[in-house]
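re: that chain from earlier
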Amino acid sequence: MDDARLADLRNRHYNATISWIRRAHDELMILRVKPDLPLPAVKPGQYTALGLGYWERRVPDCQPETLTEAQKLTLVQRAFSISSPVLEESGAGLFPPENEDFLEFYVNLVRFAAEGDEAPPFTTRLFCLEEGDRIWISPKITGHYTLDGLPADRDALFCAAGTGEAPHNRMIWDLMRRGHRGRLASVVCCRYARDLAYRGVHERLAELYPRYAYLPMSTRDTAGPKRYIQDLILSGELERATGLALDTQRTHVYLCGNPAMIGIPLERDGTEVYPTPRGVIEILETRHGFRGDRRGAPGNIHYEKFW
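^ sequence. v structure.
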C-alpha cells in the first residue's frame, strides 16, 4: 500500500495521538494516548478500547497471519484497563489530575496465540509505533470493576498478575488523592523482575505514604520453587509483609490479571465449583471467611476478568 493510501486511511479512522511511551523492555511498555476531543470521565478501574488498522505493519518474529482483502481496510480493536502515572515526574507527590490530558495504558506484546487461535493482531502492531503516531481510541469508557462500595475507612488489598495492575494503579492514586483513611497494599506477581515496570513508582509511593505497602514478586528468576500470590496468603507472609490483616470486617480485596490467580467460581449443574488450580477467591472464602461478588450480592472480594 502506498504512502498516500496509508495517510488517507489513518486520517479517516484515527482520533488520538500517542503522546508518550516508556518501554520496560522489547515486550512491555507504558504508553499515553491523547484523544483529539476532551476526555470523558473515568472511574478508577474502568477500561476502554484502542484500535489500529490491519494495514499497519507488525513486529518481526511473531505468528504469521492471513487477512482477507476486506480485513486489510478495517480496524482491529482491543480493550485495555486505564492505568495512571500515580506520581508526578519528580516523584515528590501524587500526579496532579489537572495535568492529565491523556489516558495511560500498560501493555505487553503477544507474539503468538494459543494453539488453534488466530495470530495476535493488535499488540503486534502497537509495538511498532512511536511517540507522535496516530491511533484510534473508543469514545466510551466503561466497566464495573471500580471502587464503588469501599468505605473511606476500610483497608484495601490489590492483587495483580502482570499488566493486571493497570486498574489498581489508578485506584490507588484516586484513593490517596481523596485522603482515604484505610490502609492500602498492592501485591504484583510477574514472571521476571524486569516485568515490574511500575516498581520504582510504587516503592517511592510507599516512602511517601506510611499507610501504603507494596510487595512485588517474580516467579521465574528466583531460587527455589515458584511462588504465587496464593502461596503468600496461605503462609501468612502476605499479611506480615504488607501489615494489612485479612480481616473480613475491615478489608476489601481487589483481583486483576491471570484467571488462574483469581479463580472465579464456576456454575455446574446448579452448583458453584471452584476451578483448579486453586485461586485467591477460594482461599479467601474458605480459609478467611471473605465473600466474592456475586450477581446481585456484592461481597468484599472484587475482581476483573482481565483476559
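The chain has a mean pLDDT of 96.
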